[in-house]
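thread from #wetlab-drylab

HS: before we spend reagent money on co-crystallization trials with S-adenosyl-L-homocysteine, can we at least see a predicted complex? here's what I'd submit
DV: go for it
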Amino acid sequence: MEKMIKEGKIFCKIYSDKKISRELPVFYNPAMKTNRDVTVELLRVQKRNNLQIADVLAASGIRSIRMIKELPAKKIKTVLINDCSENAVKLIKENLKINKLNLGKNNKITISCNDANKALLDGNGFDYIDIDPFGSPNPFIDSAVKRLARDGILAVTATDTSALAGTFENACRRKYWAKPMRNELMHEIGIRILIRKVQLIASQYEKALTPLLSYSTQHYMRVFFVCEKGKEKADAINNLHKYVLYCTNCMQIQTDNLNKIECCNKQMQYAGPCWVGELNQKKMVQHILDNVMRNKMYKEEKELQKLLQAIKEESCVSTVGFYDIHMLVKRNNLKNIPKFDFIIKACKQRGFDAVRTHFDEYAIKSNISAKMLISILKELN
Ligand code: SAH
């Protein structure tokens, strides 16, 4: 069924069905609105103007049209809107018209109906590339990093979260070249595995990709990277690819170049290699959050606000992993789950950082040891 919707500042014709699936004539997922909101707002806070943008898996074109209509005109020099489906390209053209973006007069916009890799490789280079597929971004990463300009931004969505989060370990190894971890840490480890895979492909071309913003939701993972060029810079990125080790007894987490380490007199469980550096650039997330909170358009967007607030808070702590408090309480046969504010305060009083995390609502991210955290939980019981 065809339908007209409003998203952000634009109107868009889309196809809808009871079930969102790739069987639709052109794909549109309302649950990805937050993904598109974050995209527009991340571009808004970039100091640079005149961006050459490539949206090569565009479907209805909604993402590009939002960028064009919602960002200041000087921000964008050109936008390539591409999809391999003829139905999609037809719809993109209609949606441009609906939003009064006349192709003839507007030489900013190019539309093409190509394979995404060809669309990228035919270009001269882009300052912003969005890889937002249905499923794994894998088939498009190589072309994207090849055509990513110096200081350019690459955005990657993965909706095959079950591979990254370890439902099928071999699928993760095949597709993302690392061992996942099937426990409470699975989404954080999954996104770190995805980050490393993209960084490795970029490092072949002596490009260093640093995450600017990374998050995971129920349906997808999303990472924005900024690109620098140079062998040393690429090496520095690769030096932060390590294993994450987890003690199944005390729940202690650590990172190491080795994957065989003991804790509580037994071998720790391991995942990786994966990116163990920062997931977010704190100042940038703060800036995005400030803009979103100020913008009337996002007044009712509680999901977006909550997500950005959580990412902002956790970007203050750079440790890998977190402690699931409910599990720690249960594992140690404690009666009560203390208030999170009290636990965080107690960690801070002992000189450690502690914050909540968007990866797990029952968890605390902290550089405190598991043993010390357990003693705090005991004290608070
Ligand atoms: N980015 C869109 C959603 C994209 S869905 C949004 O924000 O709404 C994925 C789209 O990729 C589909 O429209 C599909 O036709 C297109 N696609 C799949 N494989 C492709 C390929 N190899 N090259 C170009 N487009 C492709």
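DV: The longest helix spans residues 186-203.
HS: ok that's useful, forwarding to the group
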